[in-house]
Design a protein that fits this description.
Layout lengths: L23 H34 L3 H29 L1 H20 L4 H29 L5 H29 L8 H4 L1 H15 L13 H24 L3 H28 L12 H31 L4 H7 L1 H22 L1 H25 L5 H27 L7 H26 L10 H29 L31
Protein name: MFS transporter
InterPro entries: EmrB-like (IPR004638), MFS (IPR011701), MFS_dom (IPR020846), MFS_trans_sf (IPR036259)
Keywords: Antibiotic resistance, Cell membrane, Membrane, Transmembrane, Transmembrane helix, Transport
Amino acid sequence: MTSSEQTLTPRPSPDDAPAPGDRRRWFALAIVMTAAFMDLVDVTIVNIAIPSIQRDAGASVSQIQWITAGYALAFAAALITGGRLGDIHGRRRLFLVGIGGFTLASALCGFAVNPDMLVASRILQGSMAAMMVPQVLSIVHATFPAHERGKVFGLFGAVVGLGAVSGPLLGALLTEWNLFGLEWRPIFLINLPVGIAAFLLGRRFITESKAPKALKLDLVGVTLVSLGLLMLLYPLTRGRELGWPLWGYLCMAGALVVFAALLSYEKRKAVRDGSPLIELSLFRVKSFAAGIAVQTVFGVALGIFFLVWTLYMQIGLGWSPLRAGLTGVPFSIAVSVAAGMSVQKLVPRFGRKVLQAGALVMGTGVLLYLWEAHRYGLAIASWQMALPLVVMGAGMGLIVAPLTDAVLSEVPREHAGSASGLINTVQQMGNALGLGLVSVVFFGRIGDRLAPAQVGPAFVHAFQYALWWVAGIMGAIFLLMSALPKRPAQHVEGAEDGELPALEKEPELVS
C-alpha cells in the first residue's frame, strides 16, 4: 500500500491495493471514521450551546437560526457533488481537502468576531463536510475486500450511535466548563487537534482510489441538484419560524420541477458522454433503490425524534443540558453494541430479517417510551427512560449498519462516490422532512401563549403525540424493507471484473 496519489492510472494496481493482512488499512479506517464522527458530533453539538452563543455573541434570532441551518443546507446541497468529485479526482485527495477545510472552518467558527462571521464560517464548514463525508464510505468500499466489509460497516454503525448522543453531551460539558473563559468557542476549537491529526495521518495511511474511467464534473447537474435541494430544504428549515409563508410552498413545488429537469438532463448526459453527476443506472440495482427509500423514511423518523426528545427533556421537564445528555448514554451504547452484532453475526445468518426486526424493536421501544411518558408525566426520572432508550437503540443498531451495507452491496466500485453521496443526501433530506414535520406533530400541539405552569404539561403531551408519528413511520419502514434482497450480496467490485457476488462463492475461498 502506498500513500502517493495514483495520477497516472485510473485505479490502484493490485500492488497498490491493501493486502488482506496489511494492518495499514485499519489505520486508514480509524482516520475516516474519526472524520465521520467529527461531522456527526458537529451537527448536534451546536444546539446545546445556542443560548450561550446568543448571550455572549449578541446574535439575533435570525442569525441563531442560520448558525444551525446554514451548516445543514450547505452540507446537503454539496453532498452529491462531493461524492462525484472524489470519483473523478481521487477519494483520498478530496478527503484531505474536506478535512483540511473543515478544520480551518472550525477555527474560523471558534474565533468568529461577530455573529455574521460565525454564520459564514458554519456555511463553509458544511460545504467542507460535504467534500469529506462521502469519501468515508467510498474509501471503505475501495480499501477493504468484500468479506471484511460487514465488520467495517458494523464499526460504522457504532460510530453513528456514539455520534448521535456524544454531540449534545460534549456540547453540554464544554459549555458548562467554560474553558479558559472562552464560553461556547471550545465546541468548535476541539476540532482543530483532531482534524490536524486526521489530515497528517490520512496523507500517510489512506490509499488513493478513483473511478476506473476518466470522468468529468457535470456542472449543469451540480447547479440543478444544488438549486433543487436548496429550494426544498430552505423552506423546510425556516418554515415554522417564518409562519409557513406561501412562497415557501411555491419554492418546494418548484423544487420538484427542478428535480424533474435534473432527471431528464442526467439521462441525456449519460448517453452523450457517460459522465453524469448522478448515476441513474444505480437505481436499477434493487438493493440500492430499496435501500435509498428506506434510508429516506428512516431519516424522517430520526429527524422528528431527536429534536422533539431534546425539547421535551430540556424545556418540558426543565432538565439541564448535561442531564439530558447523560440520559441518552444508554441509547448510544445500545446502538453501538447492536450495530456490531448485526453485520458480523446476525445478517450473514438471517439476512433481511435482521433489518425488519430492527424496525419492529425500535417501534416497540418508541411505544414503551410513550407509555412511560404518559404514566410518569413530569415526574419521570432518567433511570425510568433507560429501558425504552435501550430498546430503541438496539432497534436502531440493527438497522443503521446493515442498511448502509445493503445499499452499497451491489454498487460497482467506480460509482462508489456517487452512491455514497446519494446515501448521505437522502439522509439529510429525510432529516429535513422530519424537522419540517416537527412543526405539525409537536409544535402544532402546543399553544402559542402558555403560562409558566402550562409549559411542562404541554410539552409532555406534545412529545407523546410525536411518538405516535415515529411509531407509525417505523411501521412503514418495516413494510418498505420487504423490497430489500433477502440476503444482500457482498459488494461487486465492478461490472468489468466479471466477479460473482461473494455470497455466491464458498466462504473459505473468498479473499
